[in-house]
Amino acid sequence: MPDEEEIEVRCPVCGKTARVPAKQAERDFKARCPDGHEIPLVKAI
Predict the structure, then answer these.
(1) Is 21 exposed, middle or buried (0-12, 13-18, 19+ CB in 10 A)?
(2) Cα 36–Cα 34–Cα 30 angle in degrees, nearest 5
(3) What is the mean pLDDT of residues 24-35?
(4) What residue spans define the domains of the chain?
(5) Of 8, 11, 19, 26, which is most buried with the most CB atoms under 10 A?
């Protein structure tokens, strides 16, 4: 079991799923899919 929580997001360009550590997502507000597309993130309330 991983020590760090991950979030899973779907790329709006190609539809592939990307996993990002939650702390990195909160810090950078972006992720990259396996094909290299940048996925903008927003903070969930």
Answers:
(1) middle
(2) 60
(3) 95
(4) 6-34
(5) 11
Q: What is the model's pLDDT at position 2?
A: 56
d(CA 18, CA 11): 7
* Percent helix, strand and coil across the chain, each to the nearest 5: 15, 35, 50
Q: What is the sign, positive or negative, of the torsion defined by CA atoms of 7, 41, 23, 28?
A: positive
- The one-character DSSP state at 44 is -
Single-letter amino acid, residue 24: Q
Residue 22: is its pLDDT beyond 90? yes
pLDDT score of 8 more than 70: yes
